Amino acid sequence: xxxxxSGRWATHEQLDSIEGARVDELVELFQTAWWTRGRERAxxxxxxxxxxxxxxxxxxxxxxxxxxxxxxxxxxxxATLFDVIVAESERGSGLGLALTDALxxxxxxxxxxxxxxxxxxxxxxxxxxxxxxxxxxxxxxxRLDRDPG
Length: 149
What we know:
This protein is an alpha+beta fold.
């Protein structure tokens, strides 16, 4: 299952924005992952508005959002990929590969020198197929946690 030039698959459709009832579907999808669980619609709407790009994937037969990814970028030097998520019912189908391909081909990332993401150790081989590498010269992820929850 690979994305064509139109960004469409045989059984799925790519969306370049998430609006209206699709936001509710995204909030539901977020409840299935440990790092997005608990997100609420108002905050998700703000997140979408503050993102530089996003891709959603809808299963045509059910007309439901089943995958999502987004990014932030300066358009030149850096971009960070966030919230790459595939519905549990779609995992193992190749949809995650197609979603990541589509994300990396997004016009908003075309001229960016460094694409970055963070993931659990078991997903390193998945992202490694595109050339993502954990060897970043000793750089460490640092976080200031301002969320009391």
